[in-house]
């Protein structure tokens, strides 16, 4: 891993982020925008799965899912820029590690949704218990991701 | 007048609440994290509702979106409280910061749009259209809430 971090520090991307002073603040702003697009789109599906705003047909909320991928992509790109700017600070940081772990869990949860719930929603309106568990987990994990991310500057 | 404001800002910064945030190890990060979570709930859901009003996800009926906006208001409550606490801890800096002033102005515009959308959604009972509201209000809402986030982030830099 050490050699990867050393390679990152000698990469053109690393130098670009440090040389152009606007890149870091601009990426942070985009990271926040990506966050609300991701959380908002995931949130509206999860809230409906949990039984809030039942008058909305479940399958119609699936139109918001592509926006989650947009938000996630924006944040994967800007997140990579942050990591490249200071790899030796992020890699050992406990909040950063927790955040990455939580994102992986959110991803697995999304895979569970895709295979256990997605088809059922498209075909019928019946809500299984696992759908509510997935929705609750999704909201909880993404909130943890946000909190862990905000904690990165305050822990080692 | 100017002096009275400065005195007030300095009094705010030296208050007991401000002290807790300034001096306790976890006070500031906890309040800051709450502000980010509240932002996700408020701006995230508001953005999705306004996307719908612009015609995105057209199969989603409009009137139940009122319930979604009520959840978004909890994000507003979280952020009003955490925002006030953050302001208290560093009142003079925030008061004279231009990104902060722009953020407050955009919040007033975004808040007004939210109130108009709320009123409108309460009146409709079919999924047909959004009546007199049109697409101007949702478009302004999306721009101003995005601006709130941009300005908020730039407070740390400008």
Describe this structure in words.
The complex is a heterodimer of chains A (156) and B (158). Chain A is mostly helical. Chain A has one domain. Chain A has 7 helices and no strands. Chain A has helices at 2-9, 12-19, 23-49, 65-85, 87-90, 94-123, 129-151. Chain A is elongated. By secondary structure, chain B is mainly α. Chain B is 78% helix and 0% strand. Chain B is built from 7 helices and no strands. Chain B has helices spanning 2-13, 16-23, 27-53, 65-89, 91-96, 98-123, 136-154. In chain B, α2 (16-23) crosses α4, α3 packs antiparallel against α7 (136-154) and α6 (98-123) packs antiparallel against α7. The longest helix of chain B is centred in the N-terminal third of the chain and has 27 residues, at 27-53. The radius of gyration of chain B is 18 Å and the shape is elongated. The model of chain B has no long low-confidence stretch (mean pLDDT 91). Chain A binds chain B through residues 25, 28-29, 32-33, 35-41, 43-44, 47, 52-57, 59-61, 63-64, 67, 142-143, 146-147, 149-151, 154, and chain B through 28-29, 32-33, 36-37, 39-41, 43-48, 51, 56-61, 63-65, 67-68, 71, 146, 149-150, 152-154, 156-157.
Q: What descriptive keywords fit this protein?
A:
heterodimer, A: 156 residues, mainly alpha, 7 helices, B: 158 residues, 0% strand
């Amino acid at each position: 891993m050490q050699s990867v971090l050393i390679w990152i520090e000698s990469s053109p991307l690393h130098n670009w982020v440090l040389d152009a002073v606007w890149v870091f603040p601009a990426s942070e702003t985009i990271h926040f925008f990506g966050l609300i697009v991701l959380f908002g789109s995931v949130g509206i599906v999860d809230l409906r799965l949990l039984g809030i705003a039942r008058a909305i047909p479940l399958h119609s909320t699936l139109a918001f899912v592509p926006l989650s991928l947009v938000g996630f992509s924006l944040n994967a790109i800007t997140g990579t820029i942050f990591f490249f700017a200071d790899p030796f600070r992020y890699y050992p940081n406990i909040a950063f590690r927790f955040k990455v772990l939580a994102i992986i869990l959110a991803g697995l949860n999304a895979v569970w949704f895709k295979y256990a719930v997605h088809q059922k929603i498209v075909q019928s309106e019946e809500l299984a218990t696992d759908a509510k568990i997935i929705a609750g987990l999704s909201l909880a994990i993404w909130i943890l991701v946000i909190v862990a991310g905000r904690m990165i500057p305050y822990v080692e | 007048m100017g002096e009275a404001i400065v005195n007030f800002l300095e009094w705010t910064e030296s208050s007991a609440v401000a002290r807790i945030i300034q001096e306790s190890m976890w006070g500031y990060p906890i309040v800051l994290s709450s502000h980010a979570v509240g932002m996700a709930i408020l701006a995230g859901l508001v953005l999705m509702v306004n996307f719908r009003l612009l015609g995105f996800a057209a199969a989603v009926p409009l009137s139940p979106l009122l319930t979604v906006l009520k959840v978004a208001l909890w994000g507003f409550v979280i952020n009003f409280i955490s925002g006030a606490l953050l302001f208290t801890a560093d009142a003079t800096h925030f008061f004279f910061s231009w990104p902060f002033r722009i953020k407050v102005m955009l919040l007033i515009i975004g808040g007004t749009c939210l109130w108009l959308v709320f009123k409108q959604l309460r009146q409709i009972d079919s999924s047909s259209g959004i009546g007199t509201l049109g697409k101007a209000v949702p478009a302004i809402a999306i721009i101003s809430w995005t601006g709130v986030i941009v300005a908020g982030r730039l407070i740390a830099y400008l």
